[in-house]
Design brief:
alpha+beta; 3 helices; ERH-like fold; 23% strand; globular; four-stranded antiparallel beta sheet
Length: 104
């Protein structure tokens, strides 16, 4: 598990910047999915069940002005930066594992 900081700027104005920290990369990717789910709930307040596919999630990520992660590297005692494409790849792997796990 590597401590991970998610940096998000949804809008053009710097004041929209925010961050969240997580105990692992997977928790962070789940956090990105939750951000999208909250976005969908705000846009569809009267819809009891929200569903989406990965392409819609990736489109949402692409609409963000900026999103990146800082992942702790124990060997160097530093944080390594990762971009949007890396985040999408990690989400893809996470959701693929969840879809094919026996508990899914």
């Amino acid at each position: 598990m590597s401590h991970t900081i998610l940096l998000v700027q949804p809008g053009a104005r710097p004041v929209t910047r925010t961050y969240c920290d997580y105990e692992s990369v997977n928790e962070c990717m789940e956090g990105v999915c939750k951000i999208y789910e909250e976005h969908l709930k705000r846009r569809n307040p009267n819809t009891p069940t929200i569903t989406y596919d990965i392409s819609q999630l990736f489109d949402f990520i692409d609409t963000l002005m900026d999103i990146s992660c800082l992942v702790y590297q124990k060997s160097t005692n530093t944080y390594a930066p990762y971009n949007k494409d890396w985040i999408k790849e990690k989400i893809y792997v996470l959701l693929r594992q969840a879809a094919f796990s026996p508990n899914a």
